[in-house]
Amino acid sequence: MMSMNKYLYSLVVLTVLTACADQYVESYNIQGSSAVSVLDGSKLYLKVLTDGELRNIDSCEVVHGGFGFTGKLDTTRIAMLTVGEGGMPLIMEKGDIKVTIDRTGHRVSGTPMNDQLYDFLDKHLQLENQQGELGHREAQLILDGKDEQTIAETLTAEHQRLLQQLDSLETTFILQNLDNVLGPCAFQMMTASYRYPVLTPQIEEIMGKATEKFKADPYVHEYYKNAKDILARMRGEGTDDPAPQPAAAVPLPNDSTQR
Fold this sequence. Notes:
The protein is an alpha+beta fold. Helices cover 47% and strands 24% of the residues. The protein has eight helices and eight strands. The strands form two sheets. It has a four-stranded mixed β-sheet with strand order 4-1-7-8. Strands 3-2-5-6 form a four-stranded antiparallel β-sheet.
């Protein structure tokens, strides 16, 4: 009788401990809405960066403008929500993540890091749009009869000002988020515009102030190593090893990777 009581007691304890453990396993809930009718019936894929590649972890279909993903979450991580050739970055974190898609763009919100990421992306896009408007300004100044040299000096100064603001925005955001996934995420987006890993003054500044955790991020570590190797080769300090290849990166929304 005592043996049976001990067995039942052990079983109850194990059940309670298992239930408690499940309480500490976080989960994510992604709920989306689309106002773009052509997306109805389309397949959406949720992908995460693993070993330098974006790999599918879940998929769903857009039905009457709605879609969703739910699952267990062992760690906060960068992900991409893709449809066809397009995609949008999001942070898989605990809580209710809201994705909104319409003809003007898309946004991910509802959780702290996704709100921070898309506030950053909104500011980034505003500065890029201002750069894109410089061509229209040039045409207007020509129509106004302005001197060509004056136009060139004005637009060059404006272009440099916008570049400095972009650099400052990116650098500040990354340095403020060195020890969470937002820092590496923004670093990946920033470096996606380069054909191969390079060391710019901006990157050197970031790496000079970076924490060990940031430097240990797989993408950051591989990018920085390859960039230094390429620079050494250009200086004639390299070996006969094959040239390093560009690392995979999370693209900016709507593939806006050109400056």
